[in-house]
Amino acid sequence: MRPARLGIPLIVAAAAVGVGYVLSVGLEGYFVYLGMSAVVAAIALLGLGVVTGSAGMISLCQLTFGAVGAWVVSWLNTMDAPGGFIVWLLLGGIAAGLVGVIVGLPALRLRGINLAVVTLGLAAAADLTLVQLQFPGTTEGIPVARPDSFSDDRSYFLLGVVVLVVCCLALHFLRRGRWGSGWLAVAFSERGTAAAGASVRTSKLTAFAVSAALGGISGGLLTGQVGLAFPASFTSIQSLALYVLAIMSGVHLIDMAVFGAVLWVAVPELLKRWGVPQDWGFVIFGFLGVQALASGGNLGTALRDLWHRRARAREAVHLERGTNGSEYIAPPLGEPVLVVRGLSVRFGHVDALASVDISLREHSVLGVIGPNGAGKSTLVDAISGFLPQAQGEVELDGRPLTGSPTRRARVGMRRTFQQDRVPPRLTVDAYVRFVARRRLTSQEIAEALEFFGCPPARTPLSWVDVGARRLVEVVGHLLARPRILLLDEPAAGLPHEEHVAFGERLRRVPARFGVSVLLIEHDLDLVRSVCDTITVLDFGRVLASGPQAEVLANPAVLKAYMGEKELL
Ligand SMILES: Nc1ncnc2c1ncn2[C@@H]1O[C@H](COP(=O)(O)OP(=O)(O)OP(=O)(O)O)[C@@H](O)[C@H]1O
Fold first, then answer.
1. Which of 270, 252, 249 lies closest to 261, judged by CA?
2. Where is the ABC transporter domain (predicted)?
């Protein structure tokens, strides 16, 4: 990791601990107590920021994970387990993380409202169980023992700030790594994630585990704050309110998790001072949450957008997509690298593909063309493993290409999509590294981006138009150095005049990246300028296949394209 990447977060963390120290000695006792409550809430919100804010899954049981942490800490306290409070806190986090993985299992199949029902149901079941079970030590009145050096409220608050800062740092670095990119990718498109060779299952389960572990740590800290944990601190309605607050504030951003926690504590406190029942705080959070859901945004991203708009005005993204390079001499074609035999796919009564044979030779670009509905995208979906019902044989380098899309991507078969599957919340650099799945130097990335006329690596993808995003998608997959790359209408988002420049670059791809390409495209000019061989599909069958000139002169092909009297 570069020193600047490590240094700045560490400086901010040290400053935050400094502020915590000043507050711990300077605030009145009551405000120190409130501050500690905000620290506890901030850690729980950080967790929600992972599962909901980053990975896009609904989790309505965050305080249940808190209860698991609190329960483990209380139990270890009554057992007088070795290690003391800090070790118990960690164990509480780990236990909650494991419960998080179990809760995350249904998330592999469920989405949206169904997942909401499952997680809220779990929270409600935990409500009842906790009332029956009670926390260890409560009936005997054994309060949780804080560490000796943090026994009074002021020093315990400072300990809480240090734990919060450590959690923020850990999360910051996790987000910058593969897990973090996986969370954002899976939130935007599960298919896009799998096509990048990343496991959708791992992305979802790690999000739940990290989120729950943070919830567990917050519950453990709360137990140390109050001495004896009670079920009333972890109810399902509070989990629901915390979720709404998370949605409203945008807690996938660390600063907004802290801000949300301040609201969580300050709103009920203000209501109390004004003589209004504190439960009205939930109504206020509910109202603000509905507002956020209706507008599709949140406070954190609105503030970031405001800042970025100013930054963007200062630094406009210039895309130079002119042609580059000198006269190109194609390498000789090699042996078949991808062989498809008798591939068939049925959707109900529709034969989307009927016994299709295709061969892609090394160092070549094969064009697959055909009228709308001919079966081109179905062909790519079937080869890349997205249609398990497909019949027939697919071989890569002479070996059967089988299994999930993730597995196929990992053994050297990459694909892009007709629709935009590039998560806009990553930067170009983070996305390319995520998709490439191997160590890349900044120079390697910069050169590949420049070759395709893409925006610079540090650019947020949300600033980039959809055409350029799809070029970045191509670059990411090429940098994975797969054996083959299937491109499903890659130029669709580009202005027509840029198709030629794109075609020239694509022609050089086999020699430059060592990748053979199967190109689906409607733009025949582009196909003509790039493809050595062409296969024409019509009604799911191969109409013609062979060298470009031969295929485009074929009368059956001309007929299929009706109106196109001359394709050459
Ligand atoms: N999920 C699906 N369910 C039912 N029918 C489908 C499904 N996907 C594709 N089809 C049908 O299969 C046939 C082939 O579709 P496909 O999308 O592969 O064609 P295409 O050549 O890629 O078309 P286009 O050029 O418009 O993208 C069409 O008749 C389409 O309606």
1. 249
2. 338-564
